[in-house]
Amino acid sequence: MDVSGVRRRLGAAAREVRRALLVRRRLLSAVCAAVAVLATLRALAPPPEPTTAVLVAVRSLPAGSVVGSGDVAREALPAAAVPDQVAEAPVGRTLAAPVGPGEVLTDARFVGPSLLEGRPGSVALPVRIPDADVVAMLRVGDRVDLFAADPAAVDPHGTRLLDSVLVLALPAPVGRDGRQGRLVVLEVTPDQGALVSGHAARWLLTIALGG
What we know:
Elements (H helix, E strand, L loop, with lengths): L2 H42 L6 E7 L14 E7 L44 E7 L2 H5 L6 E7 L9 E11 L12 E7 L1 H11 L3 E6 L2
Antiparallel strand pairs: 1-2, 3-6, 4-5, 4-7, 5-6
């Protein structure tokens, strides 16, 4: 029996075992180091920012529309991103200004019930006037005449829709350049509101100061 050969084979096997253990030890050390780094980073990371659940619009809503239950959804936003005067119960309220998808619904976007206090039988109708400079001359409490004109007509001429209606509110403009015009909230009867809404779908509206 070749004893020296057996010893050489045993020595080679022992060296292979030591190398395998060394490789595994280095791998285990690297894993432990990575876990330690991750734990340190998590310990040093700032706590998650608190959030607040608010109601946002799920689609574009035009001025004058009544908000339905399917128009809003509850969404959690960072507390710092939540605006003031968030509307708590917007369903059933009338918008005085347009709202875009994902926008938080605030009380400033709605026609307030106080606008019609003491005016039974009246409704508040938001109408968009393309010329923002005209609206800039108005003040709440003014009385105006409302006209409509068909821009597609060959010989367009104005049609008087309303006489001496009261300006209830002048919502702040949405765009800074005034290209979207301005909203004016008028006190009208339900029949007058239906008349104006029918013309506003495709006609341009304008106003003149009444007596």
